[in-house]
Specification:
heterodimer; A: alpha+beta; 5-stranded antiparallel sheet; two-stranded antiparallel sheet; 6 helices; globular; B: alpha+beta; 3-stranded antiparallel sheet
Chain lengths: 175, 432
């Protein structure tokens, strides 16, 4: 970090929004149409074990905290939401540079591959930006919400980015 | 295949492991293995394996560069086929290239790269300019429409003098189950991550107001010149911290002012002369037992890529990427203190005394890690002790009903390796 304080370009990296959005990878990943669900369902273990596999896969892909919670009255009928959290040195809502958006990039890597993997297991899964990730993360017991509605986790405090929520009908257990 | 003319700059120093001894012809990317195969030039079996098969493993279908059921589920395809951004018209001034070099390395590490180096571009590193702009391109790499813009390799190396090599390392523990879907996962997931990082880094350099060209340079040459590692007997770059378990994805060629790194000496050259562990373990005998040869003007160990490639369609139901030569390499170890100490001892040892040290280290490696890798790894629902495709329950104390397809109890703690060396020895001839 000492190195970064003496780096004259670091502020540009973190805070300067890209002049051309195509130089950021975020839009292209978000706008990609969802792939097909594989026609043959994979053999799964019990929902408890499947839930542990989903969490382990998310961690392997780079999520720092993973939680699963039940969805009520989901418009597409998905019973579960997988919430992935990645560490963020800068709040991506304020730091709009390519560097400030790195947590979003890491989060998209996790959610894209995780949801694609669930679809290849033969179950529906979609990445959605319409749900309140922080509230679902709190429901998945990853942390609590403070007065401003920000997620506070025990391990990383508020220096955390809630990646887009993955909704799925994979048989899981909330925890 | 144009031989580089006489006005080329003097050949660069690539370290002790590879030496440019003659004229180097720029490699035509369309003559490299994957494009050859995608045109059907390597036979039906390989063509069908490459283009027309869908993996039975869900994780391979989302992480491997082919064998997917639906390309939209494969992140690297999405990232690499994205439209390219414009170079920012407001260029950030760089008064001190050393500061910018530190910055670019910090940026790549911040994005998740494990290794970042800068090479000075040399015409011999570049792919041949005859590559058509939209020709068949290696799907592992960036589908770039960057072209030479009518320039020769010499002019390109002068105009864009630096090559940034940024890459990721494979996960050590999962790599132990190589020749299995678990090892494939270690390889393919980190490869996807590297593609994402390079794409983001390329975009950031354009935002700084400088050119960032992909699909230009041979990554291994740039890696050698910038000290990513040394070229081993197995034809892979061997890194000081990660051994052979690093990717060599398509590097970024740029005119951003930087300070190039120098080749390194980690003792790989001395180790490879003696060790031969990769050659002994290679299931297709594609790694040479003999000495270096001069190929295309470069003195190096030359693997037989065709025999290496040909085993793959026959192993399709078990794994996607063999990785044996990378896994058995004594340099491929966890990145911990005893490993750093050993590499430090080897690289500071006077060169004439190194063979003695290498023999001692090789004996230790054989004693503790075995002359062949036989590790059983359990991860998610996978178990490398059970033949892939058979159902494997890896949950301790599990009492669930698994049905008749469930695998019998595996014997011992030995991984399932297909093909076994003794089986391929019958039909693969050794070259020495």
């Amino acid at each position: 970090m000492a190195l970064r304080r003496h780096d004259p370009y670091w502020d540009f990296f973190i805070n300067a929004p890209p002049a051309d959005r195509a130089n950021s990878v975020l839009d292209v990943i978000r706008k990609t149409p969802e792939g097909n669900v594989f026609p043959t369902r994979a053999d799964l273990h019990t929902p408890e074990v499947t839930a542990s596999h989903v969490k382990e896969m998310a961690r392997y892909l780079g999520a720092d905290l993973v939680g699963i919670t039940e969805l009520e009255n989901d418009d597409a009928g998905h019973p579960f939401a997988v919430v992935c959290l990645v560490r963020a040195d800068h709040d991506p809502r304020e730091a709009l540079g390519i560097g400030g958006q790195v947590p979003v990039q890491n989060g998209l890597f996790v959610t894209f591959v995780l949801s694609a993997w669930i679809r290849e297991l033969g179950y529906r899964a979609s990445v959605t930006t319409s749900l309140d990730g922080a509230r679902l993360a709190a429901a998945a017991k990853l942390g609590t919400l403070d007065r401003a509605g920000m997620l506070v986790t025990a391990k990383y405090g508020t220096r955390i980015h809630v990646a887009d929520v993955v909704r799925t009908d994979l048989p899981l257990t909330a925890a | 295949m144009a031989v580089t003319p006489a006005q080329t700059p003097p050949p660069p120093y690539l370290g002790r492991s590879a030496r440019i001894v003659g004229p180097v012809a720029n490699v035509d990317m369309n003559q490299t293995p994957h494009p050859k195969n995608s045109r059907g030039e390597l036979g039906k079996a390989l063509f069908n394996w490459y283009r027309n098969t869908i993996s039975r493993d869900p994780l391979t279908r989302v992480s491997a560069p082919n064998h997917f059921a639906d390309q939209r589920n494969f992140l690297a395809a999405v990232v690499n086929q994205a439209p390219k951004g414009q170079v920012n018209a407001r260029q950030v001034p760089v008064p001190d290239p050393a500061v910018m070099t530190r910055h670019i390395k910090a940026v790549a590490h911040h994005m998740g790269a494990d290794v970042v180096t800068v090479a000075r571009a040399h015409p011999s590193f570049l792919y041949a300019p005859s590559t058509p702009p939209a020709g068949a391109r290696d799907v592992y790499q960036n589908r770039s429409s960057d072209v030479y813009q009518g320039r020769t390799p010499e002019q390109m190396a002068e105009r864009y003098p630096y090559i940034i090599v940024a890459t990721t390392a494979w996960d050590y523990d999962k790599l132990q189950a190589h020749r299995h879907y678990i090892g494939d996962a270690a390889y393919h997931v980190s490869q996807m991550k590297a593609q994402l990082i390079l794409k983001a880094l390329e975009g950031y350099i354009k935002e700084l107001g400088y050119a960032a060209l992909r699909g230009m340079s041979n990554p291994q040459a740039a890696g050698l010149a910038s000290g990513v590692g040394e070229l081993g007997r197995n034809g892979l770059l061997i890194h000081r911290k990660f051994g052979a378990r690093i990717h060599m994805p398509d590097p970024i060629m740029t005119d951003l002012p930087l300070v190039p790194d120098q080749p390194v000496d980690n003792g790989v050259e001395d180790f490879c002369k003696i060790c031969r562990k990769c050659a002994i373990n290679c299931p297709t005998n594609s790694v040479p037992f003999g000495d270096k040869v001069v190929f295309n003007g470069v003195e190096k160990y030359k693997i037989n890529w065709l025999t290496c490639y040909k085993v793959r369609p026959y192993m399709d139901t078990h794994w996607g990427s063999c990785l044996t030569c990378a896994t058995v390499c004594p340099f491929t170890k966890p990145n911990v203190w005893w490993r750093s100490l050993t590499v430090w001892a080897l690289s500071t040892c006077p060169i004439p005394a190194r063979p003695l040290l290498v023999r001692a280290l090789k004996a230790i490696d054989d004693r503790f890690w075995g002359t062949t890798r036989q590790t059983r790894v359990r991860w998610l629902g996978y178990d490398s002790g059970i033949k892939p495709g058979e159902q494997a329950c890896t949950v301790a104390g599990c009492t669930a009903e698994h049905g008749p397809a469930h695998a019998a109890e595996p014997v011992g703690n030995i991984g399932y390796y297909a093909p076994l060396k003794e089986n391929t020895n019958r039909f693969v001839k050794r070259d020495a």
